[in-house]
Amino acid sequence: MRTSLLPTALLAIGFAIAPAVCFAQQPPASPNDQLAAIAGTVLSANTGEPLKKAHVDLSRNGPEGDDPNKQPFSATTDVAGHFSIDKIPAGSYSLEVSRANYLPSHYGQDKPDKPGATLSLAAGQKITDLLFRLNRMGIITGRVRDEDGDPLRGAFVVSMVHRTVAGKPKIEQSASGRTNDLGEYRIVDLMPGRYSIVATPAGVRSAGRSYGQREEYVPVYYSGTTDSERASTLEVKSGDELTGIDFVFTPKPPTHTYKVRGHVLSTLTEFPEANIMVLLFPRGKEASSFVADRKQDSADTKTGNFEIKDVAPGEYIATALSFAGGETRTTSQNVDVISADVDGVSLVFTQGIDIPVRVSFEGKSAASTVNFTVSLLRDEKENTFAFGSSR
Question: For labeling, which of 39, 91, 340, 369 is most exposed (least CB within 10 Å)?
């Protein structure tokens, strides 16, 4: 009887090939292999030293990034200023680095006042050489004394930053501070720019005496003037600490002051109870928005009546601001204070008009654009406020 060896040989060959085929097969890709990762270093732009405890936040752009329940990817730098974030899904992101006492910086941002760029991450991409240089914010310090050289405690010191808005100069309140028992103040977190400084004696005490409404000091601007038009300015650069910015208060000269009374009205068919603020600015100074130059009162929400006290003779603009129903409205009127109280000032809110605005960005879809603001400014010298809608 003859026995065929062919089936047995084929079977043996099959067993010999099978392990080889099994070993040649690649294992399935891990989901983590499709996730991106970033790493980098944060340094001080002023000293070049690594910054520890800087916060790095990576936020998803687009509709997913608008979900309030989704937390951004984040990390904190170590002693060497190093950070890393892994397990990042592919997509486009905004990357921000921040630290106390420093200006925040965004990925792709060339200068502090310029916008950042989008960080696009592909599946499995690894970026390990990101570098951020943070600029330290400025500081202004000094002391406030009375006419006898005694320190004034609780004085309010405000920095006012000079900007250009729509091609016009504007002065806006920035950071502030109060004096301690030694009359010392410290204003921190100042962005680079040009500043005016004013010290206001609200609620101060000196040598055991309290200065209230009857006996007040005159607000003082740097350097030593009581007139905001003559105030000197300070140039603050990144990392600057300007010391010795001192103030000396002198008693307010005896002048007779008056009251400005009136009411707020509306021609609107529906005018809900609102928080209405009435501000009084000296004409010609309203654009500067110096806190010490203005007086204010809240109008009664039922009657609309208001009363502004302690007004010196002069030419003013009275402006009413209404905050109600998610909208802000404003109306103004000239007021002259001569030698008596002023009664019957009428500030009337009227129906405004809606102006549709369409904003387009070259090469970008509406869904990919960042938040922006559209503002409408009056071309009037008296205009104090500007409002806009943001998206």
Answer: 340
How far from the centroid of its chain's Cα atoms is residue 101's Cα? Answer: 14
Look at residues 103, 111, 91 and name the one whose alpha carbon lies nearest to residue 136: 103
310's tokens: 């302690």
Q: Are 96 and 104 in contact (CB under 8 A)?
A: yes
Q: What is the pTM of this model?
A: 0.61
Burial (CB < 10 A; 0-12, 13-18, 19+), residue 345, is: buried
Instruction: Tell how far CA 4 is from the center of its chain.
Output: 91
Give the contacts of 292 (CB within 8 A, at least 6 positions apart). 158, 198, 200, 219, 221, 228
* Token pair listed for 116: 């950042």
> Under a CB-based contact definition with an 8 Å cutoff, are residues 146 and 179 in contact?
no
Tell me the C-alpha to C-alpha distance, in Å, between residue 373 and each of 13, 165, 172: 75, 13, 18
> Which pLDDT tens digit goes with each residue over 180-219?
999 999 999 999 999 999 998 865 444 444 443 335 678 8
Nearest to 352 by CA among 333, 372, 331: 331
Identify any residues that bridge with 193 across adjacent strands, giving them in sequence order: 236
| End-to-end Cα, the chain, rounded Å | 93
What is the C-alpha separation between 190 and 188, in angstroms, rounded? 6
SS3 10: helix
Residue-averaged pLDDT of the chain: 79
* Helix H or strand E segment including 15: helix 6-24
Give backbone dihedrals phi and psi of 9, rounded to 5 degrees, phi first.
Answer: -65, -40
CB atoms within 10 A of CB 335: 20
Average pLDDT score over residue span 139-157: 92
Helix (H, G, I), strand (E, B) or coil at 11: helix
Distance CA 29, CA 48 (A): 42
Question: Rounded to whole angstroms, what are the CA distances from 277 to 148, 195, 299?
Answer: 38, 27, 6
Peptide bond into 332 cis (omega under 30): no
Instruction: Kindly provide the b/e burial profile for residues 276-298, where b requires at least 16 CB atoms within 10 angstroms of the residue's own CB.
Output: bbbbbbbeebbbbbbebbbbebe
Q: Please answer whether residues 85 and 56 qualify as being in contact, where contact means their C-beta atoms are separated by less than 8 angstroms.
A: yes
d(CA 129, CA 107): 12
